[in-house]
Amino acid sequence: MMLHAQHMPGQPGTPSLVFLHGFSGDCHEWQPVGEQFHGCSRLYIDLPGHGGSAAIPVDGFADVIRLLRATLISYNILKFWLVGYSLGGRVAMMAACQGIPGLCGLVVEGGHPGLQNEQARAERRLSDGRWAERFRHEPLTEVFHDWYQQPVFASLTAQQRQALTALRSQNNGETLAAMLEATSLAVQPDLREAL
């Protein structure tokens, strides 16, 4: 099985850029950035539970990395950079720490390397569990309205929050909840030393 992706070929012989979106995003998010690298081959991936990969279930990061590897092989991508935002950045860091073959380097924006103690993991597990339940049972417009009120999104304007809420509400709440639980910071190891 492989993840849904959009491939833009570039000059042969150069490493590919493999783009991984954040939670509730899809393969289109990185395309405006990726287009600036038109000489490079680019692969924009839909992570499990998102976009064209919404129906692909995973039990944790190991499954995500296995699917990522299978997707790269299916496109004959042997040398590549992983470029990830938030969840995509965490997937990229996990792949690097697991020694995914062909990796040339990482570009990570807003990707957390992992919580450093069990209390923080327990708190995050509870928080992510509450969010997952909301994604499963409430209208996504309401959930994302509240999601974008979190302190991490404080720099967004009201107009940006409104646009993101409308965009993200097109997702499937059940598959988002499953991916949130499978790849929560609560289950991610602290990657600082390995990186």
Fold and architecture overview:
The structure is a single chain. By secondary structure, the protein is an alpha/beta fold. It has two domains: 5-109, 3-Layer(aba) Sandwich (Rossmann fold), CATH 3.40.50.1820; 118-182, no CATH class. Helices cover 40% and strands 13% of the residues. It has seven helices and five strands. The protein has a five-stranded mixed sheet, covered by helices on one side. α1 links the parallel β2 (16-20) and β3. α4 runs antiparallel to α7 (173-182) and α5 (140-147) runs antiparallel to α6 (158-168). The radius of gyration is 16 Å and the shape is globular. The two termini are 28 Å apart. The mean pLDDT is 97.
List the helices and strands and how they pair.
Layout lengths: L4 E4 L7 E5 L10 H4 L7 E4 L15 H14 L5 E6 L1 H11 L5 E7 L8 H20 L2 H8 L10 H11 L4 H10 L13
Parallel strand pairs: 2-3, 2-4, 4-5
Antiparallel strand pairs: 1-3
